[in-house]
Amino acid sequence: MIDLRQLRQFVAVAEELNFRRAAERLHMSQPPLTQTVKSLERALGTKLFDRSRRKVELTRPGRLLLDQAQSVLSHMDRALDAVRASAQGLSGRLAIGVVPSTTYGILPAILRLFRERHPSVDLHLEELATVDQTDALQQGRIDVALNRPPTFFSRGLVQETLMRETLIAALPTHHPLARARGCASPTFDTRRSSSSRPAGGRATTSACSMPATPQASCLA
C-alpha cells in the first residue's frame, strides 16, 4: 500500500535527482529516504531511478509516476486547505436573510467589506419579511438575518444592533409639529401628518431619531 508520505519523498528525489539534496529538503536522513524508494520499486515491480555513482535519472515508469504523484499531492493539498478554511469560516457559503429596506442602507457596505476579507465565501441573499426570518434561521435556510425593529424572535436567537439611524420627516409648514425641533416616533403614531406640499405653502423638515436600527440576528 502506497501512502502520501512515500509519494512526497519520491517526488522530492525525482525533482532534485539527488538523494542527499532531497533528504535535506525533507529534513530527514538519507538512508530512510533510500529505503522508501526501494520499497516503492518493490511495490510497483519496476525501477523508478537509474542510479550510478555520477548521477540519478528517472526511468520511464519513474517519469510517469512523478506526473501522477505531483497531481495527486497538489489535489490533496488543495482539499486540505479547503477543509481548514471551511472549519475557520474562511470559505463556504453564507446565506443572509434581509428585509428590503436594508438593501439600500447598511447592507452594501457590509457585503463589500466582507468580500474583501473573505473572498472565498459565497454569499447568498434572500429577501424575507422579519416574521419569516425566524423560521428560516431555525430551519437552517439562512445563517444570519438583517432586519429592523420591531422584531419578534423566539428564544434561541441572538440579536445585535448594528447601527442607529436618523430619519427625516417632511411636514407642511402649518402642521403643529413643524415648529418642533425634534419629534419622537410615538408622536407621529398619534397625529395625522402628510409629506405632500400644500397648495401655496412651503414644506419644512423635522429630524426624528429611530433607535436600534438595523439589527443582525442569528442562532445562539
Summarize the model shown:
By secondary structure, the protein is an alpha/beta fold. The chain is built from seven helices and nine strands, in the order H-H-H-E-E-H-E-H-E-H-E-E-E-H-E-E.
Explain the overall architecture.
With 220 residues, this protein is of the alpha/beta class. The chain has 3 domains: 84 residues, Winged helix-like DNA-binding domain superfamily/Winged helix DNA-binding domain (Arc Repressor Mutant, subunit A); 77 residues, D-Maltodextrin-Binding Protein, domain 2 (3-Layer(aba) Sandwich), CATH 3.40.190; 46 residues, no CATH class. It is built from 7 helices and 9 strands; from the N terminus they run αααββαβαβαβββαββ. The strands form 3 sheets. It has a 5-stranded mixed beta sheet with strand order 4-3-5-9-6, sandwiched between helices. Strand 3, helix 5 and strand 4 form a beta-alpha-beta unit. It is rod-shaped, with a radius of gyration of 33 Å.
